[in-house]
Amino acid sequence: MDEAAGIGSGRSQTSDPREARHALQSLETRLLGGERRLRRRDVAAGAGVSLLSARKLWRAMGFPNLGDDDVAFTERDQDALTTVIDVVREGLLTEEAAISVTRAVGQMTDRMVVWQIEALVEDIAAERNVSDAEARRVLVSELPELIEPMEKMLIYSWRRQLNAGVQRLAVRAQAGLDSSEEGRQGTEDDAPLPLARAVGFADLVSYTSLSRRMNEKTLAKLVQRFENKCAEIISVGGGRLVKTVGDEVLFNCETPVAGAEISLALAEAMAADDFLPEARVSMVWGRVLSRLGDIYGPTVNLAARLTALAEPGTVLIDSTTAAALNSDDRFVLLPQEVQQVRGFGAIHPVVLARGRGEGLVVD
Q1: pLDDT of residue 221
Q2: What separation, in Å, do the N-terminal and C-terminal C-alpha atoms of the chain show?
Q3: How far is 346 from 155, CA to CA, in rounded Å?
């Protein structure tokens, strides 16, 4: 395919649009499992479901609406639809659950492929000293060699993550709730929620003003460096990076000690990095609701509020979290003045500092 498109390592790119179209068509045929031969009614009929049911699943997957005359599907689309429908027919999932699971696949893989494509484009542009536009054209010809290894990585990671998720969200869930009972009266706003978690935020200081003064490459380097450092620290600490929104990361973990170690490591790592600004970090031990790959509840909201109150380079926690860490000499607790926090009233914030021990070691 590289020969056909004239693009590859050490070769110049062809200007023939016919060859470029051929490379793109070959890539699409390989990714879709064949040529587009079927209309939406053909696929629905082949799976033995109504067009309405098929459209529900396609919308959940994130596919655009298509007309009756659009030839947009392959036999692999029909096989995938049949797989989901059979799971419902066999009673393994309700239709509602099947749509929710399908939506998870669609949304997560959409974000994943955008991330992967941009990473590959950036690498091509940097390694070969070509423009962004040319790097994107090169990608079309060179991606076929990466499809199989990337697919294997995806399946491997999904199985490992599924196993870890079962342990975290099912097997150990009750133990977490039991451990969070100390110091609680059972009347707290988060009491009915099913999971006990340490919830934390890390927010880069002055990100908005910095981003206005940076060019595209420098901003991309800052964002990637911040997320990579956070992801490594959270992973080593046994936590989960829930999401990244620009200059902020949200994470959770199963114990207040793990949350404290991760929080301190994040603040220390940003302060020690000459390229990154300092970070404000917060952490709250409480209960949450886990849905749609995200977490919700008063614990999350309070952690977000505390982030705004934290000084650059510090970690701020609430009094309940401080009580859970009070007897651990790995941490120093510095009570602060009472603050009025929107939605929570009077809060007794506490600065969390390093005590005995070296903390997390990220090798």
Answers
A1: 87
A2: 40
A3: 48
**Residue type present at position 327:** S
pLDDT at 2: 40
Residue 254 identity: E
pLDDT of residue 14: 47
Furthest-apart CA atoms within the chain: distance in Å: 73
CB 85 within 8 A of CB 96: no
Q: CA separation (Å) from 64 to 58, 60, 263?
A: 8, 10, 41
Cα(123)–Cα(55) distance, rounded to whole angstroms? 37
- What pLDDT score was predicted for residue 15? 53
**What are the residues whose beta carbons fall under 8 Å from the beta carbon of 207, sequence distance 6 or more?**
246, 247, 277
Q: How many CB atoms lie within 10 A of CB 226?
A: 26
Residues 6+ apart with CB under 8 A from 186: none
- The C-alpha atoms of residue 6 and residue 293 are separated, in whole angstroms, by 42
Packing angle between helix 17-32 and helix 132-142, nearest 10 degrees?
Answer: 50
Which tokens go with 173?
């869930």
Is residue 217 a contact partner of residue 125, using CB atoms and an 8 Å limit? Answer: no
From the first residue on, what is the mean pLDDT of each consecutive set of 10 residues in the chain (363 residues)? 39 62 90 95 95 94 91 96 96 95 94 95 94 93 94 96 94 91 85 95 86 82 90 95 91 96 96 92 97 94 95 96 94 95 92 91 79
**Which tokens belong to 113?**
């492929």
Q: What confidence tens digit (pLDDT) does each residue in 253-294 have? A: 999 999 999 999 999 999 999 989 999 999 999 999 999 899
For 311-333, give the DSSP string.
Answer: PTT-EEE-HHHHHHHTT-TTEEE
Q: Is the separation of the CB atoms in 37 and 74 below 8 Å?
A: yes
